[in-house]
Amino acid sequence: MFILNEISLWLEISFCGSMGAFTKLGLAGAVAVVGVGILCNLPVNPFVKRPEKATLDYLAQTKLRTFGSDLKEIMASQLWQKNGAVIMAVRRPGCLLCREEAQELSSLKPQLDDHGVPLYAVVHEDLGVAEFQPFFKGEIFLDKERRFYGPVERTMLFSGLLRLSVIKKILDTRKKGVDGNMKGEGRILGGVFVIGSGDQGILYEHREQEFGDYANTTEVLNAALKIETSKIDSKL
């Protein structure tokens, strides 16, 4: 009941301003708002494109740039060529939901290290990376071409904030003490990839269906343990 009250308050403040707003809209306007709300909460959001699976060749051709004082450009294939990799495509570094997912993936780091599999993240903008880094226990790269967000780039706009599952996720994450901000481009949906070494291929691919649609860490770890790792140092 407490959660429902918070959701009602969130909707009132964020989208209506006050309960009187529906009165001002009139009956037709209120029906339209309710109709949009129902559409936005369907299991498959009609306002979001369906994902298209990436191929290994497509991702391998991605040019990535490092952060820090020693900037350099590498090809994405270097990340997984020797020991495979778990790669998070971050929707927005300032997003509290992205930060919580980063923490969940980072909790796998000990098991990944034992198997010799590195953990990486890619972002599509520089903004907020320094603030995001404490939530993620791996190196972060810039994917300026946004290839890890394709081949079909998918976005979620206002409809995402009308989904009750998203609202509940935001409230739950705030209660855990994870904070965030509204800075940056947050419409582009991200995902998580587990890529095998060499030509082993993409062993796991998760595409966000909505804000806060985290990859299943058990599935991520199970896929990572299938990677054929080498004894060569995985550092670039």
Number of helices: 10
Domains counted in the coordinates: how many?
2
By CATH reckoning, the class of the largest domain would read: Alpha Beta
Euclidean distance between termini CA atoms: 51 Å
Beta strand count = 7
How much of the residues is beta strand, in percent?
Answer: 5-15%
The CATH topology of the largest domain corresponds to Glutaredoxin
The chain-level structural class is alpha/beta
Largest sheet: 5 strands, mixed
Instruction: Write the CATH homologous superfamily of the largest domain.
Output: Glutaredoxin
CATH architecture of the largest domain: 3-Layer(aba) Sandwich
Question: What percentage of residues falls in helices of 4 or more residues?
Answer: 25-40%
The average pLDDT score comes to 82
The strands making up the biggest β-sheet line up spatially as: 5-4-3-6-7
Shape: globular
- Kindly provide the radius of gyration, computed on alpha-carbon positions and rounded to a whole number of angstroms: 20 Å
Order of helices and strands: HHHEEHEHHEHEHHEEH
Q: Detail the poorly predicted runs.
A: 1-22, 231-236
SSE layout and pairing:
Layout: H1 2-16, H2 20-40, H3 56-60, E1 63-65, E2 73-75, H4 77-80, E3 85-89, H5 96-106, H6 109-115, E4 119-123, H7 129-132, E5 139-142, H8 158-161, H9 164-175, E6 191-195, E7 202-207, H10 217-224
Parallel strand pairs: 3-4, 4-5
Antiparallel strand pairs: 1-2, 3-6, 6-7
Helix pairs in contact: 1-9
Question: How would you describe this protein?
Answer:
It is a single chain. The protein is an alpha/beta fold and 236 residues long. It folds into two domains: 1-43; 56-226, 3-Layer(aba) Sandwich (Glutaredoxin), CATH 3.40.30. Helices cover 39% and strands 13% of the residues. It is built from ten helices and seven strands. The protein has helices spanning 2-16, 20-40, 56-60, 77-80, 96-106, 109-115, 129-132, 158-161, 164-175, 217-224, and strands at residues 63-65, 73-75, 85-89, 119-123, 139-142, 191-195, 202-207. The chain has a five-stranded mixed sheet with strand order 5-4-3-6-7, covered by helices on one side. α1 crosses α9. The protein is globular, with a radius of gyration of 20 Å. Its main location: cytoplasm. One of its GO terms (molecular function) is antioxidant activity. Keywords: Cytoplasm, Redox-active center. It comes from Biomphalaria glabrata (Bloodfluke planorb). It is found in: Cytoplasm.
